[in-house]
Amino acid sequence: MVEVRKDPYGDRVVVKRSNAGRTIGIVVVVLLAVVAVLFATGFWKADVSGGDMPEVSVKGGELPKVDVDSKEVVVGTKKTEVDVPTVGVKDNGEN
To answer: Whole-structure pTM over 0.90, yes or no?
Structure first.
């Protein structure tokens, strides 16, 4: 909510905004954090009683047959001579 009014001198407009939404959001986040800490530390427990896991039976089935053709990777080393160029600096006489 925004409240707009002129100040007593009449040359300025005063705008006052309400931060109710932000305040409510902060309160909700803090409450959720407190509840999470209470459950994590064991002060609160959720005892669920009754109900059963569903019965599931699986029959048959087999894995699919897969034919994979992969490339052969050959790794090795060999001796090789490499010519390394020499680099020099030529003085042109300037300081």
So the answer is: no
Is the CB of residue 14 less than 8 Å from the CB of residue 6?
yes
Q: Is the dihedral of CA 59, 64, 65, 70 positive or negative?
A: negative
- Percentage of the chain beyond pLDDT 90 is 21
Q: How far is CA 25 from CA 16, 22, 32, 34, 35, in A?
A: 20, 5, 11, 14, 16
Question: Phi and psi for 33 in degrees, rounded to 5?
Answer: -65, -40
Are the C-beta atoms of 33 and 25 separated by less than 8 Å?
no
Residue type, 93: G
Which residues, in sequence order, are CB contacts of 3 under 8 Å at separation 6+? 15, 16, 17, 18
What residue type is 76 in one-letter code? G
At 3, give phi and psi (nearest 5°).
-110, 120
